[in-house]
Amino acid sequence: MVAGIKPDDAAERLRRYKENYEIMERTFKINKSGEELFGLPHTDYPDLEKTDKELVLLDKLYSL
Question: Which of 11, 15, 21, 61 has its CA 20 to 30 A from that of 5?
Answer without folding.
Answer: 21
